[in-house]
Amino acid sequence: MLLEQFQTFWQRDTGIVRTQLSEVEKAKDVPHAVIVSGLRRAGKSTLLAQMAHLLGEELFYYINFEDDRFLGFQAEDATDLHQVLIELFGERKIFVIDEVQNVTGWEHFVRRFMDMGFKFYITGSNASLLSKELGTRLTGRYIPIELLPFSFKEFMQFRGEAVPDLNRMTTTDHARLQNSLQSYLQLGGIPDALKYPQLPLLRTLYDDVLYRDIATRYRLDAVTIIKELAFYLMSNPASLISFNKLKERFHVGSVNTIKSYIGYMENSWLLFTLNVYDYSVKRQQIAPKKIYSIDTGLANAVGFGFSPNTGKFLENLTYLALRRKTKDIYYFSSPGGYEVDFYLPQQQQLIQVTQNLDHPEIRDREFRALQDAMQIVKVQNALILADSNADTIEINGIPVEIHSAAEWLLNE
Are 410 and 318 in contact (CB under 8 A)? Predict the structure, then answer.
């Protein structure tokens, strides 16, 4: 089994170079464990394979705990496993491990081997499990790397599309870029689903997350409710949700049950929730949250919509692009009832996303929302993402740049 796993891992197609490879490389000479976490099939193993090829075939052991032949493996079996690896491959000081969360107590043997001078590169598909165990056992001795599906630029590179020079864009370049963005909105960035579009891989992935990563892992009996709730949330990306209203809608006995179910979906990388920005932490917690899908292609494949959800999907893509840079993201709601899609307190930046600014009422609404927010929170600049670039304007003396969403996403 170990020989098969190693050969398969080493011979796999390493695909396009992921942006996060540079983060993994930076951690090469640090004695900390590198933990790559994210959705199933988002490319975590491929990212580690790219790193492994930089290390060299003779320097590491590879173990995939997703293999059903590892069923029943316990943390205390690690010493025996290491002995077999030495017999097969000789002495090596680096472990590359896929889906480590399938082994209960994995953090014990990782810590023990780290104390003996071993280096670990690890993937996992459960954020809560990883963070909980890392916090208790590997405090200060791990480097977390979050891997999301393809960015817009990675999407274009994967499909072999020419990435234009944004400083020398022709009319044809603009049109092609808009077409690429429309494809990205609909197809998303899950590598295998893009590679094999004839197969229903997104539906299979979705079912795996719901049944294996959520229902089975958390021992849930109410599978129907989880399924209906997930379907509703995936059908309404970039929308506000209220736990109380969801409790009533799905006839669940407790708000805490709804919170737990959505927490399970977040832990399994199916979706993200976003808090409102408020100086009161309590108000942040009780206010409605915004919901974003891990991938617009996945939302498009399993959700439901009467018409193309371009505006919401564009906002969803913007959230994912921002999250690749920071987790310090909020939405803003003014007392006057106006909403700004994103507020980044560290950068003191407001961001609005809209399909276009052609209609005066849309322009007025977007500008009024920014104006309201500027009176309450600290803002150095603002950004409106639309279908094309426009001249910078000022609101309350603060510069507001207007950029093409496609060009901005390509630059992120």
Answer: no
What is the dihedral sign for C-alpha 102, 104, 108, 113? negative
Residue where a domain terminates, one of 146, 161, 184: 146
Q: Which of 380, 185, 146, 371 is nearest to 269 (CA)?
A: 146
The candidate with the shortest Cα–Cα distance to 188, out of 314, 274, 304, 353, is 314
pLDDT tens-digit map of 183-216: 999 999 999 999 999 999 999 999 999 999 999 9
Contact at 8 Å (CB) between 297 and 190?
Answer: yes
Rounded to a whole number of angstroms, the CA Rg of the chain reads 23
Closest CA to 102 of 128, 131, 145, 72: 72
Do 226 and 372 belong together in one domain? yes
Q: Is the pLDDT of residue 146 over 60?
A: yes
Mean pLDDT of 239-260: 96
226 and 318, same domain (yes or no):
yes
Maximal CA-CA distance, the chain? 73
How many structural domains are present in the chain? Answer: 2
Q: Do residues 403 and 170 lie in contact, with contact meaning Cβ atoms separated by under 8 Å?
A: no
Task: Answer whether 25's CB lies under 8 Å from 51's CB.
Answer: yes
- pTM beyond cutoff 0.85: yes
Q: Which pLDDT value is given to residue 307? A: 58
Q: Quote the tokens at residue 118.
A: 């071993």
Range of the domain at 58: 2-146
- Together in a domain, 241 and 346: yes
CATH of the domain at 122: 3.40.50.300
Tell me, yes or no, whether 305 and 210 share the same domain: yes
pLDDT tens-digit readout, 43-60: 999 999 999 999 999 999
